[in-house]
């Protein structure tokens, strides 16, 4: 993969050089200077024809929402670009990605959507839409949607894993938190013997009336207890459960009377990216709903236990899911 990427990079450099020469040509041949690069690239194909001035199109997406949704947008648009051999990718938004990860793919530029791009909307947020894999890489396409499916980036999983390397400050904070948890449970072996299960419980905004109406679903306490019990069956009793949540007070109130039975640590008061890094350092993951937990599980690797119920029955959101496209193939889905 590393070799493939560096080869791509050289291609891109060559492409950028060629484009610059073409832009200079257009500049000198036109009577007045057109300052906008996108307008210039629009001119190439119409005035001079594709056979003369071969241009590569741009695949773009505007990213909305917070970290989890931004990660889906980034991973999926890259996956689509590699599938269709687009060498220019534009992402509008995605600020949390830039502050959290050591992104290195130089086909990507974080800038506004090209003005001339053709907008194509995904069919459903949480299902794979095959139409989005069939564009010509000579066109400028703006994909509109959330692209919440692993099928969009399955082709470049290793590359995405490298892209989602946390920045050093976040990673070292997370490692310190894990060390503190280890010492709290006298794990002097420094994680080698014990099994760490990251547990992410999404509540927060999913409790808002508008979000519930839309179909968001904060899972039940019973689901989490079932998932913990399943873990003790799968991995033995010497497990440390590391809880992260956007409502850690609720989690503590509802689970701290289990601390005699299970080893539990409640992670508090960190930025979302630090919590995600802590979860990514665990061996296995229990997640509830929402894209944030989805990515925490994906980053951790290992086994993932996830709630079967991702949206409220009968809601609009529930019609947006194709579950085989959303759940990773080897995830354990329970109620
Ligand atoms: C377009 O991309 C191809 C590879 O997909 C590359 O060989 C070519 O040089 C690029 N052309 C321009 C004008 O960037
Ligand atoms: C993309 O490029 C590869 C290698 O150059 C080629 O095998 C493949 O057919 C291309 N795919 C598309 C959709 O152009
Ligand atoms: C850790 O070890 C100390 C000292 O040996 C002991 O007092 C404490 O109870 C132990 N804690 C746990 C969680 O086992
Ligand atoms: C961890 O494993 C090592 C080697 O297998 C052993 O020496 C050590 O006592 C173990 N530590 C704990 C806390 O079980
Ligand atoms: C913890 O408290 C809840 C009620 O708040 C109760 O249903 C549950 O059985 C308790 N668990 C334990 C282990 O005591
Ligand atoms: C939603 O529907 C599914 C399948 O029809 C069912 O198994 C599940 O219990 C329902 N969930 C709720 C919270 O009613
Ligand atoms: C399911 C459950 O036990 N929920 C409780 C969690 O904690 C809050 C606050 O103490 C209670 O109000 C809930 O009933």
Low-confidence stretches: 1-19, 24-52
- Overall mean confidence score, pLDDT: 86
Number of helices: 12
What is the ordering of alpha helices and beta strands? HHEHEHEEEHHEHHEHEHEHEHE
Whole-number count of domains: 2
Task: Give the CA-based shape.
Answer: globular
The first-level CATH class of the largest domain is given as: Alpha Beta
Could you tell me which ligands this complex binds, including any ions or cofactors? 2-acetamido-2-deoxy-beta-D-glucopyranose
Distance between the termini: 38 Å
Structural class: alpha/beta
CATH-defined fold name of the largest domain: Rossmann fold
Radius of gyration: 23 Å
Residue share in helices?
A: 40-55%
CATH architecture of the largest domain: 3-Layer(aba) Sandwich
Instruction: Report the strand count.
Output: 11
How much of the polypeptide forms β-strand, as a percent range? 5-15%
| Strand arrangement, major sheet | 8-7-6-9-10-11
Major sheet:
6 strands, parallel
Care to describe what's here?
Helix content is 42%, strand content 15%. It is of the alpha/beta class and 335 residues long. It has two domains: 58-163, no CATH class; 168-334, Rossmann fold. The strands form two sheets. It has a six-stranded parallel β-sheet, with helices on both faces. Helix 9 links the parallel strand 7 and strand 8. The site of one 2-acetamido-2-deoxy-beta-D-glucopyranose has 3 residues, from loops. It is an enzyme of class 2 (transferase).
């Amino acid at each position: 993969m590393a070799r493939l990427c560096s080869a791509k990079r050289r291609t891109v450099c060559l492409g950028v050089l060629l484009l610059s020469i073409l832009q200079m040509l257009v500049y000198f041949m036109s009577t007045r200077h057109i300052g906008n690069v996108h307008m210039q690239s629009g001119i190439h194909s119409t005035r001079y024809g594709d056979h003369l001035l071969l241009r590569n199109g741009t695949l773009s997406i505007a990213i909305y929402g917070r970290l989890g949704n931004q990660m889906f947008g980034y991973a999926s648009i890259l996956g689509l670009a590699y599938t269709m051999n687009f060498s220019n990718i534009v992402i509008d938004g995605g600020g949390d990605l830039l502050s959290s990860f050591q992104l290195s793919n130089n086909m990507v530029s974080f800038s506004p959507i090209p003005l001339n791009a053709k907008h194509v909307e995904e069919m459903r947020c949480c299902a794979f839409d095959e139409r989005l894999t069939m564009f010509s890489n000579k066109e400028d396409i703006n994909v509109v949607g959330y692209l919440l499916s692993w099928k969009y980036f399955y082709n470049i999983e290793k590359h995405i894993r490298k892209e989602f390397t946390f920045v050093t400050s976040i990673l070292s904070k997370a490692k310190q938190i894990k060390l503190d948890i280890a010492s709290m449970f006298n794990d002097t072996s420094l994680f080698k013997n014990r099994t760490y299960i990251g547990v992410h419980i999404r509540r927060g905004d999913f409790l808002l009336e508008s979000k519930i109406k839309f179909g968001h679903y904060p899972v039940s306490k019973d689901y989490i207890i079932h998932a913990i019990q399943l873990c003790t069956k799968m991995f033995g009793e010497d497990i440390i459960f590391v809880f992260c949540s956007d409502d850690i007070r609720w989690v503590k109130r509802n689970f701290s009377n289990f601390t005699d039975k299970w080893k539990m640590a409640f992670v508090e008061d960190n930025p979302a990216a630090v919590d995600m890094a802590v979860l990514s350092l665990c061996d296995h993951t229990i997640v509830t709903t929402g894209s944030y937990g989805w990515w925490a599980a994906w980053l951790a690797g290992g086994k993932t236990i996830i709630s079967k119920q991702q949206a409220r029955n009968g809601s609009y959101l529930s019609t947006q899911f194709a579950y085989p496209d959303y759940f990773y193939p080897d995830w354990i889905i329970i109620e």
